[in-house]
TrEMBL record, chain A:
Protein name: Iron ABC transporter
Gene Ontology BP term (one): siderophore-iron import into cell
Pfam families in alphabetical order: FecCD
Transmembrane helix found in the keyword field: yes
Subcellular location: Cell membrane
Membrane-topology descriptor: Multi-pass membrane protein
Automatic annotation (TrEMBL), chain B:
The name this protein goes by in its record: ABC transporter ATP-binding protein
Keywords: ATP-binding, Cell membrane, Ion transport, Iron, Iron transport, Membrane, Nucleotide-binding, Transport
Domain ABC transporter residues, every copy: 5-241
Membrane topology note: Peripheral membrane protein
Taxonomic source organism: Croceivirga radicis
Length: 342, 255
C-alpha cells in the first residue's frame, strides 16, 4: 500500500492547482480582470473599476463554480460506470443518459416547431434543461427496468448503447425535418457549455450533485468489492442488486442533471478516472472518488480557459476542447506507461 | 461429530433444466472435502448452489443448523468464504489490498481496517508465504502466486466454511500439492470446514477426509478409503479409457 502521506500530498497538490485554475478562470473573459484584482474582489474588498465586481459576482463566479461541479460530477459518474461495468471504456453516458437528454432537447427544439410551438417561452434554457432531464430519466428508467431482467452487466452496457443509437436516429429524423435556426439551436446545445448559468441554476445543479455524490459515498465499500467481480462481492456480503441500483441512480442524477444544464460534454467522464489512477496509483474508491472529482473539475476548468483563449469575443465549443486537449493526454500517458491501469 | 453442512435430496440446475440430482451428504466441522467428477457434470453449479449464489431446483441445504436461504447476505459472508474460477475483475490491486478485502464483512461502511484486521492480514501473508509479494500488483504474479493470494483473501474472511472452485487448475504438480496441503492444514489445525472441486482425484484421495463423486447416478459420498473399497472410483471415468487401480489408489490408462 502506498503510504497515506503520499495521497495527502496528491490531494494538497490537486486542491492548490484547482484553486489557481479557478482564479485564472474568473479573471479571464471578454473583460480581462488582473489576477490581483480578482483576488481582492473575491475577498470582498470593494472596487469600482468598470463594474468588475458585478461581472465577477454575477457572471464569472457562477460559471467557474459550474465548471467545477460539471467537471467533477462527470468524472465521478465515469468512475462509477467503469467500476460497475468493469470496463475501462465505460463513461457516464453508456447507459444512454446523454442520448436520452439529446432526445429530450431535440423533441423540444426541433419537434416543438413542427407542432407549432414556436413561442419563445417554449425555447428558453430552463425548458431545454427540463426537457433534457426528462429525456435522460426516461431512458434511464427503461434501462433500469431492462437491467432487472438481464443478469449480465455487459448486456446492460450493450442495451445502453442500443438505446443510444435509437435516440440518435430519432434525433437525425427530427433534424432532417426542422428549420435551419432550430437546428442551429440544437447544435449549439449539443456543443456543451459551462457558461450562461445563473446562480439559481448553479444552485439546483449543486443540490442534485450533492444528492448523487452522497449516494456514492455510501457505496464506497461496495464499489471496492465490485473490483473483484459481482460474485466475489456477493460472497463478501455486499447486497449486489441493491448496490447496482443505487450506482445507476446516482449516475443518472449526476450525469443527467449536468447534461440537462450544460449539454452532453464528452470525454471528461471517460478519461479522468484513468488519469487519476495513473497519478494516485490506487483502485481504492475512498481515495479515487474525491481525487477524481478534483481532477475532473481541474481538467474542465483548463479546457474552459482554453476555449476562451483565441479571441476575447468568441468562445469555442467546450465539447471540442475537452476532446482535443484530453485525448492526446490519455494517449500519451498510455503509450508512456505501456499499460492500462484498470 | 457435529454436522456442519447437511444436504438432502438436492437437485441443481438452471431454470427448469436439472444438471444433477439426488445429491445427499453431510460434512462435519473441520474436515476437508473434495468434489470430483468429469467436466460438465455440475461441480461448479453444485458449489454455487451450496453457497447460496443460485437457488436449488429442489431439496434442502442446511448450514450450521439453518437453511441457507434463511441467511442474510451479510451474515452468510461471516459463515462462508469463496474462491471462484472466474478471474478477478481488475488485477490492478496490490496483494495486501486484495487480501484486505476479505475483511469486508467486519469493517465499517468505509471499509476502514482496524488493528485486528491488520493482524489477520499479516497472519495470512505469513501462512501463504506472501510477505515478499505484499506490495506487488496482481498482474505481476504467476498463476500459482495468484491462487495463493485468492485463497489467502478467503481465509482472511475468517469464516468457519470455505468453498473453493478448482483451486489447483493451471498449476504444476508441486504447486497443486502445496495448495492442497495448505487447505488440509487449515482444516486440521484451524478447524475450518473446507469444500473444493477438483480434477486431481489421486491427490484428493491421499489428502481429503471426504469425497463426493458426482457421476449423475449415485453421487457417492464417503471417506476416500471407503469409496475405494466400494469400488466407486471405477465408474467415475469411462472404463475403455481409464481404469482405477484400487491397490495404489491411482488411475491407469486402458491400453
Amino acid at each position: 500500500m502506498t503510504k497515506p502521506s503520499s495521497y495527502k500530498l496528491g490531494f494538497i497538490g490537486l486542491t492548490l492547482l484547482l484553486l489557481l485554475c479557478m482564479l485564472i478562470s474568473i479573471s479571464l473573459g471578454s473583460v480581462s480582470i488582473p489576477l490581483g484584482d480578482t483576488f481582492s474582489i473575491l475577498l470582498g474588498q470593494p472596487r469600482t473599476e468598470m463594474g468588475w465586481e458585478y461581472i465577477i459576482w454575477n457572471y464569472r463566479l457562477p460559471k467557474t463554480i459550474a465548471a467545477v461541479l460539471i467537471g467533477g460530477g462527470l468524472a465521478v459518474s465515469g468512475l462509477l460506470m467503469q467500476t460497475l461495468f468493469r470496463n475501462p471504456l465505460a463513461g457516464p453516458f453508456v447507459l444512454g443518459i446523454s442520448s436520452g437528454a439529446s432526445l429530450g432537447a431535440a423533441l423540444l427544439l426541433l419537434g416543438g416547431t413542427s407542432l407549432g410551438l414556436t413561442q419563445l417561452f417554449w425555447l428558453n434554457d430552463v425548458a431545454i434543461a427540463i426537457a433534457a432531464s426528462l429525456g435522460s430519466f426516461l431512458i434511464l428508467l427503461i434501462v433500469i427496468v431492462v437491467a432487472n431482467s438481464v443478469k449480465d452487466t455487459m448486456a446492460l452496457l450493450i442495451i445502453g448503447l442500443m438505446f443510444g443509437s435509437i435516440t440518435s436516429a430519432v434525433v437525425s429524423i427530427l433534424s432532417y425535418f426542422s428549420k435551419a435556426e432550430q437546428l442551429q439551436r440544437f447544435i449549439f446545445w449539443s456543443y456543451g457549455s459551462v457558461g450562461n448559468l445563473s446562480w439559481q441554476k448553479v444552485g439546483v445543479l449543486a443540490l442534485l450533485l450533492l444528492v448523487g455524490l452522497t449516494i456514492c459515498l455510501f457505496c464506497i465499500k461496495s464499489l471496492n468489492a465490485f473490483l473483484l467481480g459481482e460474485q466475489y462481492a456477493q460472497s463478501m456480503g455486499i447486497p449486489v442488486k441493491k448496490t447496482k441500483f443505487f450506482i445507476i441512480i446516482a449516475t443518472g442524477i449526476v450525469a443527467g442533471a449536468i447534461t440537462a444544464f450544460a449539454g452532453p460534454i464528452a470525454f471528461i467522464g471517460l478519461a479522468v478516472p484513468h488519469l487519476t489512477r495513473q497519478w494516485f496509483k490506487t483502485m481504492d474508491h475512498k481515495i479515487l472518488l474525491p481525487a477524481v472529482f478534483l481532477y475532473g473539475a481541474l481538467l474542465l476548468l483548463i479546457c474552459d480557459t482554453i476555449a476562451q483563449l483565441p479571441t476575447a469575443a468568441t468562445v469555442l465549443p467546450i465539447n471540442a476542447i475537452t476532446s482535443i486537449v484530453g485525448a492526446p493526454v490519455v494517449i500519451w500517458l498510455l503509450v508512456r506507461k505501456r499499460k492500462m491501469l484498470f | 461429530m457435529e454436522k456442519y453442512i447437511q444436504v438432502e435430496d438436492l437437485n441443481i440446475g438452471y431454470g427448469k433444466t436439472s444438471i444433477a440430482n439426488k445429491i445427499n451428504f453431510s460434512i462435519p466441522k473441520g474436515s476437508l472435502t473434495a468434489i470430483v467428477g468429469i467436466n460438465g457434470i455440475g461441480k461448479s453449479t453444485l458449489l454455487r448452489t451450496l453457497s447460496g449464489m443460485q437457488p436449488p431446483l429442489s431439496g434442502t441445504i442446511n448450514l450450521d443448523g439453518k437453511q441457507i436461504a434463511d441467511y442474510t447476505s451479510s451474515s452468510l459472508a461471516q459463515k462462508q468464504a469463496m474462491v471462484l474460477t472466474t478471474p478477478i475483475a481488475t488485477k490492478n490491486l496490490k496483494v495486501a489490498e486484495l487480501i484486505a478485502m476479505g475483511r469486508h464483512p467486519y469493517t465499517n461502511w468505509l471499509g476502514t481496517l482496524g488493528s485486528y484486521d491488520k493482524e489477520i492480514i499479516k497472519q495470512q501473508l505469513h501462512i501463504f508465504s506472501l510477505e515478499d509479494l505484499k506490495d506487488k500488483y496482481c498482474f505481476e504474479l504467476s498463476d500459482g502466486q495468484m491462487q495463493r493470494v485468492l485463497i489467502a483473501r478467503a481465509m482472511a474472511q475468517e469464516t468457519p466454511l470455505v468453498y473453493l472452485d478448482e483451486p489447483t487448475t493451471h498449476l504444476d504438480l508441486s504447486h497443486k500439492v502445496h495448495i492442497l496441503k495448505l487447505l488440509h492444514r487449515f482444516a486440521t489445525k484451524h478447524q475450518r470446514t473446507i469444500v473444493f472441486t477438483t480434477h486431481e482425484v489421486e491427490l484428493a484421495i491421499q489428502l481429503c477426509d471426504y469425497m463426493l463423486l458426482l457421476d449423475g447416478k449415485e453421487n457417492a459420498f464417503a471417506a476416500p478409503c471407503e469409496l475405494i473399497e466400494k469400488g466407486s472410483f471405477e465408474t467415475l471415468f469411462p472404463k475403455d479409457l481409464i481404469q482405477f487401480d484400487a491397490r495404489t489408489g491411482s488411475f491407469k490408462i486402458t491400453k
